[in-house]
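STRUCTURE:
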């Protein structure tokens, strides 16, 4: 009998592919990240067995433990998508394909220091709080230019793009479009500095279980889907 996670994963994959084609975009141009926070390693193994390779975690300690438990899955790609406390960066930096949530200057400074000291390059995204919601982290649109300057001068980091979480009660499409506009603007303004980092600022991480179709229509390259794949969380991290 096919595992329920494999069945749900297949349905999400087919829907992501359909949404990509509906948006007039190339097949396979959207990366699906299975958000596995709050689910045990066995759930990740089930999705991995069904062909999923990109997984997202939001809590450093939980990620550390799962990474150890799943170390035998050699081509699994981890993404860190939550706020990363400075005293827990040692568990994440250098161990994830992409850190999606650079969300404050103090954290950015420590991330740079740790990556540089380990002589590695960590790919990162800038989290933007477009609506300025007090309940969410991320820089405001007015702060983007300052963060851009720092990111482009941070040894050990490669700035790959932007991430956002739109207000839950709003139509997400205008917020997704706004992030895409920022991407276009920043790529034009910083093309030379980005090239020096080996980046084209090509990543837009936006869209979750309830709104990934709208995100794909607006240009998302990475969508973060948890509940639609794994069901309700098995535990609270």
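SEQUENCE:
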């Amino acid at each position: 009998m096919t595992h329920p996670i494999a069945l749900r994963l297949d349905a999400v994959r087919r829907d992501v592919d359909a949404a990509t084609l509906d948006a007039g975009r190339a097949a396979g141009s959207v990366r699906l990240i299975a958000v596995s926070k709050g689910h045990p390693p066995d759930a990740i193994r089930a999705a991995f067995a069904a062909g999923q390779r990109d997984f997202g975690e939001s809590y450093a300690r939980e990620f550390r433990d799962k990474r150890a438990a799943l170390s035998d899955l050699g081509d699994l790609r981890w993404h860190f998508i939550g706020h990363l406390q400075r005293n827990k960066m040692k568990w994440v930096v250098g161990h994830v394909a992409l850190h999606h949530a650079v969300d404050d200057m103090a954290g950015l400074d420590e991330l740079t220091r740790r990556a540089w000291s380990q002589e590695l390059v960590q790919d990162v995204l800038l989290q933007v709080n477009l609506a300025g919601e007090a309940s969410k982290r991320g820089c405001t649109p007015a702060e983007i230019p300052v963060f851009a300057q720092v990111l482009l001068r941070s040894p050990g980091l490669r700035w790959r793009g932007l991430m956002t979480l739109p207000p839950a009660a709003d139509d997400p499409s205008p917020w997704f479009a706004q992030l895409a506009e920022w991407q276009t603007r920043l790529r034009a303004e910083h093309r030379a500095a980005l090239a020096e980092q080996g980046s084209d600022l090509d990543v837009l991480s936006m869209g979750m279980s309830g709104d990934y179709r709208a995100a794909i229509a607006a240009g998302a390259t990475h969508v973060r889907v948890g509940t639609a794949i794994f069901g309700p969380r098995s535990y609270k991290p």
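REMARK: The chain has nine helices and eight strands.
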